Amino acid sequence: MGKKLKRLFSGIQPTGEIHIGNYQGAIKQWVKLIDKYECFYCIVDYHAITIEYNVREMPDKILKTAVCLIACGLNPEKCVLFVQSHVPEHTELAWVLNTVTAIGDLQRMTQFKEKSQQHKGNVNVGLFTYPVLQAADIILYKADVVPVGEDQFQHVELSRRIARKFNALYGKTFPEPQHLSTESPRIIGLDGQYKMSKSRNNYIGILESDEIIWEKISRAVTDPARKTKKDPGNPEICNMYSLHKLYSSREEIENSAENCKKASWGCLDCKRILWKNIVESLKPIKQKANELENNIDYVHNILKENADKSRKIAKETMNEVREKLGILI
Ligand code: TRP
After folding, report:
1. How many distinct helices (H) and strands (E) make up the chain?
2. How far is the CA of 102 from the centre of ligand 1 (A)?
3. Which among 198, 216, 261, 286 is annotated as catalytic?
4. Which carries the bigger pLDDT value, residue 134 or residue 231?
5. Start and end residues for every CATH 1.10.240.10 domain found in the chain
6. Beta pairing, strands 38-43 & 178-181
C-alpha cells in the first residue's frame, strides 16, 4: 500500500446522455484524477428535483448518466461512482447544515439568483437550500478537494464556510474542502455564444450518430463577421476553431486557421475535418456505452455496490455528527 491519498468528491446532474462540453470541461479531468485521489463521483438526483423535471424519464436519465460516465473512462472499480439518493445521509446531513447556514449567504448565491429568474413559477425552498445539500455531499465524506468548473466555485466556498461554522459551534469535525479548477477551457456551445448545455440545445451528445453530429456542426455558428465563403475569417473568434484545438492534429489546426484567414476554405471545409475528428474520438466511448446498455444489470449492480461503500463512510460521519450535536444515540 502506498501513502494515503487525499479524498476527492464531485457531483454531476443526471441529465442523461452527456455532451462534449461536459466531457472536455469536466469528465476527462475526472478520469485523470482517479489515480491521484480517492475519488467519489456522485449523480445528484436530489439536486435535480429542485427544478421542474419529467418523473417518467428520471430513472433512465440517472442510468444513462452512469452509463456515459463509465463509458468515458470513470472505471467504477477504481472510483466510487454512485447515486446521491441511494445514500440517505446526504439529506440527513443537509438538514443539520441548514441550521448553521445563514439565509443571507444563500441569498447571494449567483446560481440561485439565475435559476429563480429562469424558473419564476417554481422558486421552491429546495432550490434555495441547494448549496446546503451540495455542502453536505462534500463534507459527508470529509473530502479534501472538489473538482468543479468556475460556476461552482461559489458553492464550494460556501461549503467551506458551512464546515467552518459547524466546527466552530460543535468542535472540529470537517476539513474545509478546496476547489480544484477543472473547466479549462470553457466549452462554448454550437450557438457560439453560451456555455454548451442541454438546456440551451447547443450541444453535441457523446452518443449521437455521425449523421446528427454532422447536421449540428454544419449549422453551428462560426466567425459572425464572415458572411460568405469569399470573406476572410478570423479563427480566433470562431468557436469551431476552439473545438479544432481540442480534437484536431496540430497540422489540421494550422491548416484550418491559415485557409480561413486567406478565405481559401469555406467554413464547411473546416467543419468537415472537425466532424471527422470528433466522430472518431467518440467511437470507443459509444462502443463502450453500447456494451453497458446491453448489460444494464451490471450498471445497476455497480451503482448499488458503490452506494454501499459510500454509505459506510456516510454512516460513520453521521454518528460523529449526532454525537457532536448532543443528540441521543
Ligand atoms: N451543483 C453541481 C453542478 O450543478 C453539482 C453538484 C452537486 C456538486 N453536489 C456537488 C458538484 C458536490 C461538486 C460537489 O454542477
Report:
1. 15, 5
2. 20
3. 198
4. 134
5. 210-289
6. unpaired
At the fourth CATH level, the homologous superfamily of domain 7-187+296-325 is: HUPs (3.40.50.620)
CATH fold of 210-289 reads: Tyrosyl-Transfer RNA Synthetase (1.10.240)
Query: How many whole angstroms separate alpha carbon 285 and alpha carbon 73?
Result: 8
Beta strands in 19-120 (DSSP E): 38-43, 80-83
The residue whose C-alpha atom lies closest to atom 10 belonging to ligand 1 is 11
Residues 6+ apart with CB under 8 A from 193: 202, 221
Three cell numbers written together for 272: 468537415
- Cα 99 to its chain centre, rounded Å, is 28
Per DSSP, 99 falls in state: T
DSSP state of 198: T
Say what the pTM is: 0.95
* pLDDT tens sequence across 278-291: 999 999 999 999 99
Choose which residue among 9, 10, 44, 162 to substitute to test ligand 1 binding: the one with the highest number of ligand atoms within 8 A of its C-beta. Answer: 44
